[in-house]
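User: Some background: our group keeps a shared notebook of sequences we're curious about, and every so often someone picks one and asks for a predicted structure to add to the entry. Today it's my turn. The entry only has the sequence so far, pasted here. Could you supply the structure so I can complete it?
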Amino acid sequence: MTPRPEPVVNAPNNDDSSNVTNAAAAPSNEASSSSSLPTPPPAAADKHLDHVWCMEESPTNGVLTQDGLEKIANHKYKSGTYTALDTFINPMWEALTQMLPLWLAPNLVTTIGGSFCVLAYCVSAYYDFAMTGDVPDWVLVLNGMCQMIYFTLDCMDGKQARRTKSSSPLGQLFDHGIDALGNLNSVSSCQCIMQNPSKQYLWMHCALQFTFFQAQWEEYYTGVLPHATGNIGVTEVMYGMALWSITTGLIFKRTIFGFVMPDFVQEANFPLRSAVVGDITEPLELRHMLAVVWIYMTTTLSILSLIRVAQHVKSPGLIASAFSKMITPTLVCAVALLYLPTDDPNSIRYASLSLGLCLCLSTIKIIVFSMGRMAFASFQLDTIPFFVVAAIGTQTPSMNSTLYAMLAAYYGIRLSTWAGSAIHHICNRLNIQLFRIKYPQLKEE
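Assistant: Of course. Here's the predicted structure to add to the notebook entry:
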C-alpha cells in the first residue's frame, strides 16, 4: 500500500528518507559564502516536467543521469499528516524501535519486514497455486500476522534511521520499493479471504497496483505523497486487512462472505456490475459486492488524485502531459483484464505475478525519477514484453503456463537489475552502504 506519512510536530518520522544527515547534504550557507572554498556548481534545471513519449534520457552509465543522481542526493521526502490512528499507535512504534540494536541498519529493518510478505505469498501460492483462495484456515492467520509484522517494521525503519543518524534518500527508494512489491501479497491475502472468481481477483489486483502507482505519480508532480483521505489512511487499511485475515481464519471461516445479497441488490444494475462481477449464474454474494466496493473506492481515490495534480500544475499543456503518464498502467491493466488466462488454473498465478512485477517496475522507476527530477516517459518500453506475451497467449492457450512463467522470471530479473543499478550508484554518491551503517552511533542523543 501507499507508504505511511511523516509524523508531525515532535514525533519522529516514519520514513528514513527525509532530514538527510550525510555527506550528500547540501552545503551550509556559511560554507557556500566563504571565499576560501570553491563555489558549488549551479543546480541543474528540473527535467521532470519535460514531456517524453517513450525515449527517456539515456545515462552514460547505469540507469541514472548525473544530474538526477545529484538531485537524489539532496532529496527530502514530504508526506501528508497523521490520521488519528497513526497518532494513537505512534508511541508503540517508538517503543518497539527503542528495542532494536543500534547496529541494525534501517534498510535491513525494511528488508526483514518485506521478507514476511514473501513468506505469506509463497505459502499461499503453495496451497493455492490456482488462486481460488482455497487455503487452510491457519494460512489466513499466518497471512494476517505477516501483514501486521511487515507494516509495523515498515513504520519503524525511519525511526531507526534517525536513531542511528543514518537517514538518507536511499531510504525512500528502498522503503517504497518494498511497499510496491508488498502489494502483491496484500491482494493475494485478500483473495485467500474472499475466494472470488479469478476475474474479480484481477480487478482487485489491477485497482490496487494502479492506485499505488498513481500515488507515486502524484508525488512526482506535487512533491507530496498522499497517504490518506480524511481520517482513513494506509495504517487503517493495512492493520484492518491483517485483523480481517486473522479473524476470518479463527472465527468466520469465510462463511460470512457467502452471504446472499437481498433481492433488491440482486436486481440492481449498478455501475461496473457486469464488468467486475461478470455473468455469474449464482446469486450475488457478499464476496462479489466487496469486490465492487473495492473498485468504487480505488476509482474515487484515482479521481481525487487527478484533480489534485491538475490543480497543482495548472497549465493545460502540463495537465495533458501529466495525465499521459498514466497511459502505461492503464494499458497494462486493460490488457490484463481482457486477455490474461483467468480460466486456466495452471497459468493464472504466473500471469498475476507477471502483471504485478511489470507494474512494480514502472512504479519503482517513477519513484526514482521523481526523486531525481528526471523525465518519466508516458509509455514505458519495459511493458512491451507483457503485451507481446498476452497477445501470443490468446493464440496459443496451451503455452500460457510456460509463457507467463518465463515472463515472470524476466520481470523479476529486470526489476532486480534496474533497481540494483540505481541503488549501487546512489550508495556510491552518498558514500553509504545499503545494509550497513558505515559510522554507527553507539550512543543516543
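Suggested note for the entry: The chain is about 60% helix and 0% strand. The two ends are 33 Å apart (CA to CA).
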